[in-house]
Design goal:
globular; two-stranded antiparallel ribbon; alpha/beta; 15 strands; Rossmann fold
Length: 368
């Protein structure tokens, strides 16, 4: 059996079967061409990180995945375990790491609202102390570091679409602030290290991304809608559904990250799909693709929920020759197929996940 990736076609020599997510993944032992560099991916067992791992491994690099499994999962990368070019380290980037690498993709951070709102202090530490530690590592070993920043640095934008020279409209004390401001200061740190210490940095401002290996109950629009439609539950739309989002398929993002890392562009670059849709349009499209009879249910609007989100990707087109190529419906069908398999796996393990809103920890009363 072969595992097909949108960016590569490879002949495989040995297989590892029976992965928990229902995929049969076959791992290559074949020879690679070109220079083999040592690449470290923090958060490499996460949704985006694991797809990046697949691409870099298939391109012949030595890859070290660093993950504390706060939101990452071993299942996402276990098909590479045993390959001579692959190493998996269970490590939290809040603690220093001493390793020899040529490139660092710094993806470590909770990225969905329920995850980063559930533990805002951990989110802040990962994006501040964790980023300082990775920049320190890059400085020591002369590595180039790519920061996975986010469109959230633009907040609830007053400019549409958002280009890289827009400074943003962020609530510094709102429920999303731990993530928004954490990423903003991470960018600041990158450029401080570049200016003061000569560290080579790349900054990718990533817009909404979806695909296989997303967490099913991560509270994001696409995963919520797919899960609800598959389970015959109402599709929950917050507010009127007129808010817009622009989604890119994960393989497009991975190609953009690699192109940026290997470019000479040190200033921030938007990576996203400029094809804009309303939340209500997404709900109806996913409902139709799943063939679900679910109703659409309107709930009260979430606080600080951006009303418009659309990237200006002229810079990526011009300087990286990059733009998304996977059509929305094709990507959604792949995600739906993955979620069906996940539901079967979870059912066999007697656990069915439910989409849920962010949990806010209650404050404790202090006695002086």
């Amino acid at each position: 059996s072969k595992m097909q990736f949108p960016w590569v076609s490879v002949s495989y020599l040995r297989s590892r079967e029976g992965l928990g997510n229902g995929l049969v993944v076959t791992v290559s032992s074949c020879a690679f061409s070109g220079d083999v560099g040592h690449v470290q991916i923090t958060g490499g067992a996460g949704f985006v990180g694991s797809h990046l791992t697949d691409k870099l491994m298939m391109d012949g690099h030595e890859v070290t995945v660093v993950d504390n499994f706060f939101t990452g999962r071993k299942r996402n990368v276990e098909h590479w375990i045993g390959h001579e070019n692959f190493e998996l380290i269970n490590h939290d980037v809040v603690e220093p790491l001493y390793i020899e690498v040529d490139q660092i993709y710094h993806l470590a951070s909770p990225a969905s609202p329920p995850n980063y709102m559930y533990n805002p202090i951990k989110t802040l530490k990962t994006n501040t102390i964790g980023t300082l530690n990775m920049l320190g590592l890059a400085k020591r070993v002369g590595a180039r570091l790519l920061l996975a920043s986010t469109s959230e640095v633009y907040g609830d934008p007053e400019v549409h679409p958002q280009s890289e020279d827009y400074w943003g409209h962020v609530n510094p004390i709102g429920p999303r602030a731990c993530y928004d401001e954490g990423k903003r200061v991470a960018e600041t740190m990158c450029y401080a290290y570049m200016k003061q210490e000569g560290v080579e940095v790349r900054v990718a401002r990533i817009f909404n991304t979806f695909g296989p290996r997303m967490h099913m109950n991560d509270g994001r629009v696409v995963s919520n809608f797919i899960l609800q439609a598959l389970q015959g539950e109402p599709l929950t739309v917050y507010g009127s559904g007129s808010q817009t989002r622009a989604f890119q398929y994960v393989s497009d993002l991975v190609n953009g990250l690699v192109a940026l890392m290997n470019s000479n562009v040190s200033s921030p670059v938007n990576l996203g799909n400029p094809e804009e849709h309303t939340i209500l349009e997404f709900a109806q499209l996913i409902k139709n693709l799943v063939g679900s009879g679910s109703e659409i249910q309107f709930l009260s609007e979430a606080q600080d929920d951006p009303q418009k989100r659309k990237p200006d990707i002229r810079k990526a087109k011009m300087m990286l020759a990059w733009e998304p190529v996977v059509p929305l419906e094709e990507g959604l069908n792949k995600a739906i197929h993955y979620f069906r398999k996940e539901l079967e796996y979870q059912a066999n393990n007697q656990y069915i996940p439910k989409p849920k809103p962010a949990r806010i920890k209650k404050g404790r009363t202090r006695h002086n």
